[in-house]
């Protein structure tokens, strides 16, 4: 395999890994959304979970945009 072919394979593998990471992060965002509905969470815990969820949404958006850039 030539160097150019290796580079192409690396790019494909990185793109596949990025897609998998985005999917995993989306799953975490959904789980956090479910946790936010738990009745026994304190207001502070809900705020922390919400902030974590929003941060992950920002990371996902960045990954999606950089993937297509």
Structure description:
It is a single chain. The protein is mainly α and 69 residues long. The chain has one domain (3-68). It is 86% helix and 0% strand. The protein contains two helices and no strands. The longest helix has 33 residues, at 3-35. The two termini are 28 Å apart. The mean pLDDT is 83.
Index terms:
mainly alpha; 2 helices; 0% strand; 86% helix; single chain; 69 residues
- Number of β-strand runs: 0
Task: State the shape.
Answer: elongated
> What portion of residues belong to β-strands?
under 5%
In N-to-C order, the SSE pattern is: HH
> How many domain units?
1
The overall pLDDT, averaged over residues, is 83
Helix content: over 70%
Provide a short characterization of the protein structure.
The chain has 69 residues and is mainly α.
SSE order and pairing:
Elements: H1 3-35, H2 43-68
Helix pairs in contact: 1-2
